[in-house]
Every structure is written in structure tokens, then in C-alpha cells.
Amino acid sequence: MESIISTVLIGIIIFLTLAYLYMKKAHSFFQRLDISGPQPAPFFGIFPEYKKKGITELDLELINKYGNVVGIYHGHKPVVLVADPEMIQDICITKFNKFKNRKVNLDLGPLLRKTVALSDNGQWTFLREHISEVFKPNYLEQITGKLLQSTEHLIHNIEEKLTAENDFDFQELCLAFSVDSLCNSLFGYNVNSYKDREDKTVDMIKKGWMAGTAGIARPAVACAVCPAMTKIFSAFSYNAIPTDVRKYLTNLVTKKMKKRHTEGGRTDLLSFIMTSSRRRSIIVDSQNNTTKSAENMASDYRLSETEIVANCLFFFLAGYDTTASTIVFTLYCLAKHPECQDKVLSEISNNLSSENLSYDDIENLQYLDMVLNETLRIFPTYLRYGRAVGEDTVIKGIKFPKGTEIQFPIYAIHRNKDNFPNPEKFDPNRFSKENVSKRHPMSFIPFGAGPRDCFGQSYAKLAVKFSVVSLIQKYKFSLSSKQNDPPTLAKTFYLRPENGLWLTVDRRTADL
């Protein structure tokens, strides 16, 4: 018995010793490249600091201490934080072909693998050509009526709450608007999820979002800490999206597609995706990453049902919480700065002739656009964007070996005093045409940059603007005594208020 125990103990000691030596070698990566950064925790790297401080505080600390290029470790995996605007332009635009893909360390399942965000090389080119088409102005202006329907639900829900109180948390209201507008814009499904809490489609979308965010982050951490976990997840065919959600949403989209094939004439994003797919005349060879014209064969190379389902689902995953948080943070900024709120109201009253907002009406509100951009500067929804190094590359004297992961710390870039003097101050005038022209374009990248930026950003900004205009027309917002100022931020990889966001709401006494 003693010999068995001794053998086990010796085996454990040998395993831990080998693991330590492997990790020590892995953690010497940046020393060899002469890139500075914090001392990583054994096995876990920077992860304990994420839990302690959150990405926002940590990124500010790292960039201020080590400069615009910082080496950190996710477990044993090296990650380079790049906050230098010129380097970002090289990576995302000038030398894009060397940094075309995102670094994905874990197979998240066949559905997410077919999304624009997580696909690679030729498949990404193919998907991007089809999906990005539907977010152009000629399509977006056709869904403004659906956004108006969803803002009407939001206003109705606020009115019901105002019968009892005028201080309340706007996070839940805006989350409901976000899912309502996504359902209506994507499927033509007009729902008021704040009132109808039992709606099956909304429930599945929320479940998919919650499971998807946790199902991506936690396994990724496990694989970074213990590389063997990657093979284990693969062996068990890991899927970040629960089976019941996949089946329900696949069935839903398939039914909607069949209905559109037979009926036609729908003005929603799903119909536009199908139309774009039929019209596209591109074949993409995902093996050699080439494209060629094929006008007479276009019908054979449409998006598959699986690809459409996958990207519809990802549209919800990417837009649900982020759209809501942007609306909430915009209202917070306007509540805190009443002079800016008055200016937005004045612009609305001077430029809109009726309550029936149109796409052109919204696009012509230049000061509102400045307010939204300044909100996204201070409160960017996604805190980091990443790229994978496709081949050994040197930028500004720094070598990036093939396979290295690069991430852009958006929050820290936006709050860098070299990019934005007095960065804590809310000042929409930073985004006047004159001031924008004086800045490096890569100093403000809330939606990423280059060909691989966020394909849905035009929709997201349109939805936020529609909601804000509709609300400012009817209500005056001020900070609630229940609200922390500044708001406490959740320690997640996307930005949201930790405990909701409370505002005081008063009806405006005069019509515009």
C-alpha cells in the first residue's frame, strides 16, 4: 500500500514539475521578444487580475505603466496588447492580409464556426460579402418602421412605470427594447418582451445569449490554463449554444425562410440576407483563399440554411446586451450633462417635421451623432478586439511571430490623454468634423477597424439613435439619487453597468 502511495506521489511531483517547467518556458515568450509586461501568475497568467480589477481598470493600468505595447499571458498563451494607433492601422488595414483572422483557441461548435465573427480566410470572405450587404443604407431605411414599433413599446413601458414612480432602472427596459428591435428587424416579429415575459422566442434568445457568453468565456479560460482541455472539449464535441436553443432557433429561421420563399415582399433583415445571397455571384475557395466571378453559377453558391441560422443567432448574441448598454450609457451622459441634453432636444425640434422618424431624419442629426460617439468613447461596448498573426511580421521594430494573438484594449485607447486630452470629461465636440480631422483615425475604434470591423455597427447605431430621439422628445432625464456616479462597471469582457442604471424621468410639458 505504501509503495502505491509513494508511486502516486512521485507521479504527481513529476507531473507538477514538468508542468511548471513548461509554463516557465511559455512565460519567457515576451522576454525573447523584448516586450515588457506584468509578471504572470503561475499557470493562470493574468486571469487573477481580471477577476480582481476587471478589464477596464487593468487595461488602463497596463498601458499607463508599460506603454502602448504590452505582453500578457492568458494562462500559458501569450497575448500582445497594442494601443498604438499607427500600429493598429498597420495591423487592421495596411497589412490586413497578414492579420486577417481572429485567434480562436477553442472550437465552439459547428454553428458558431459558421458566423462572420469566428470564421477564417475564404469562408470569412464569403460570409462577409453576403451578410454585410444587408446593413447598407438602402436596406436599413426599410426597417425604420420596425424600429419605431419597438420604441413605441419602450415608451409604453415607461408610461406604465411613471404611474407609480419616476425613478427606475433603465437597464431592464433597454434590454427589452434591444431584444424587441432585434426580433422585429430580423424576423418581422413584433413583440413587447417587457410585458410578455412568457414569449418562447424571446426566452430562447435570452437563454442563448446567457449560455453563449458563459459558454465562450469559461471554456476559453480553461483551455488557456490547461492546454489539454482543448482536446478534451473537442473529443466531447463541445458546443457553446445549448441543444434546445439551437434546435428551436434553427427551426424558427427555417420556417421563416420557407415562408419568405412562398410569400416574398417582406422587409426584414432575414429577407434581405436571402435576397443578397441569391444575388451574390462569388465563389470562395476556402482552401486557397481566392474568389472568382461566377454570374452563371451564383444560385449554386448561396448561403446555406445553417449559415443563415448561425449568423442570425450571432446577431442576437452580439447585439442584445451591447445595444441596451449603449442606450443606457447615452441616457446617463445626457442626464448628467443637461446642457447637452438640451442641445440634442433643440436639434431634434429644429430638424424633425413630424413624429414619424425616417432614416434620413436620424442621419441628419449631427450633434446626436457626436453625443453617441462620445458615449462610445467613454463607454465602449466591447473592451477588446483581437487578431491572429498569420505570418512573421515586424511593425515599428517589434516582431510578431506567426500564431501570436494581438488584442486592442479599446477602453484604454479611448481614455488615453494623448488621443483625447482630459479623457474623463464628456465632450461631444471632440467629434466635430474639425476635431476628428486632427486625430489619428485609429484612436477611436468602438466597433473595431478595417475589413474585419463589426458588420452590424450601422444597425446598432441606428437602433440607439431611434430610441434616444424618441425618448428625448417625450422625457427629461436626470440622475437618480439611487445611482452611483460614475456607475460601477461589471467585470466582464463587454461593458455594462454592474447594478443597472437608475434615472429620474419627467414628462416634457410642451410638444416639439
TrEMBL record:
Membrane-spanning regions, if any?
Answer: 6-23
Q: Which GO terms describe its molecular function?
A: heme binding; iron ion binding; oxidoreductase activity, acting on paired donors, with incorporation or reduction of molecular oxygen; steroid hydroxylase activity
Looking up Pfam families in the UniProt record yields: p450 (PF00067)
Its cofactor is: heme
> What's in the keyword line of the UniProt record?
Heme, Iron, Membrane, Metal-binding, Monooxygenase, Oxidoreductase, Transmembrane, Transmembrane helix
> Which InterPro entries does the UniProt entry name for this protein?
Cyt_P450, Cyt_P450_CS, Cyt_P450_E_grp-I, Cyt_P450_sf, Cytochrome_P450_3A
Q: Where does heme bind?
A: 454
Q: What does this protein do?
A: Cytochromes P450 are a group of heme-thiolate monooxygenases. They oxidize a variety of structurally unrelated compounds, including steroids, fatty acids, and xenobiotics.
Protein family membership: Belongs to the cytochrome P450 family.
Its name, as the record gives it, is: Uncharacterized protein
Query: What is the species listed in this Swiss-Prot or TrEMBL entry?
Result: Mytilus galloprovincialis
Give the organism's phylogenetic lineage: Eukaryota, Metazoa, Spiralia, Lophotrochozoa, Mollusca
